[in-house]
């Protein structure tokens, strides 16, 4: 069953508000026979820290990240940015 989401397109949102959005990461590839992993989780965590968290965490995307000055900060565009 689908639930219709509210339309916030014309909402007067407080620009100082933050939203904690969960980050889901999926990795795929061949499993290394010696480690049994696609990627070492320590390496994945470090990569995520450098390429996602340091750039976007606790940021007002439209104000703090230059890329989003001219690009709408949708989930899809955040994925393209990273």
TrEMBL record:
<comment type="similarity">
    <text>Belongs to the PTPS family.</text>
</comment>
<keyword id="KW-0456">Lyase</keyword>
<dbReference type="GO" id="GO:0006729">
    <property type="term" value="P:tetrahydrobiopterin biosynthetic process"/>
</dbReference>
<dbReference type="GO" id="GO:0016757">
    <property type="term" value="F:glycosyltransferase activity"/>
</dbReference>
<keyword id="KW-0862">Zinc</keyword>
<dbReference type="GO" id="GO:0005739">
    <property type="term" value="C:mitochondrion"/>
</dbReference>
<dbReference type="Pfam" id="PF01242">
    <property type="entry name" value="PTPS"/>
</dbReference>
<protein>
    <recommendedName>
        <fullName>6-pyruvoyltetrahydropterin synthase</fullName>
        <ecNumber>4.2.3.12</ecNumber>
    </recommendedName>
</protein>
<dbReference type="InterPro" id="IPR038418">
    <property type="entry name" value="6-PTP_synth/QueD_sf"/>
</dbReference>
<keyword id="KW-0808">Transferase</keyword>
<dbReference type="InterPro" id="IPR007115">
    <property type="entry name" value="6-PTP_synth/QueD"/>
</dbReference>
<keyword id="KW-0328">Glycosyltransferase</keyword>
<keyword id="KW-0479">Metal-binding</keyword>
<dbReference type="GO" id="GO:0003874">
    <property type="term" value="F:6-pyruvoyltetrahydropterin synthase activity"/>
</dbReference>
<dbReference type="GO" id="GO:0046872">
    <property type="term" value="F:metal ion binding"/>
</dbReference>
<comment type="pathway">
    <text>Cofactor biosynthesis; tetrahydrobiopterin biosynthesis; tetrahydrobiopterin from 7,8-dihydroneopterin triphosphate: step 1/3.</text>
</comment>
<keyword id="KW-0783">Tetrahydrobiopterin biosynthesis</keyword>
């Amino acid at each position: 069953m689908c639930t219709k989401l509210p339309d916030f397109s014309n909402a007067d949102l407080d620009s100082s508000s933050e939203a904690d959005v969960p980050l889901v990461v999926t990795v795929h590839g061949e499993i290394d026979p010696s480690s049994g992993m696609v990627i070492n989780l320590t390496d994945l965590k470090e990569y995520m820290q450098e390429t996602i968290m340091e750039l976007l965490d606790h940021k007002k995307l439209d104000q703090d990240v230059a890329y989003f000055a001219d690009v709408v900060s949708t989930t899809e565009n955040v994925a393209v940015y990273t």
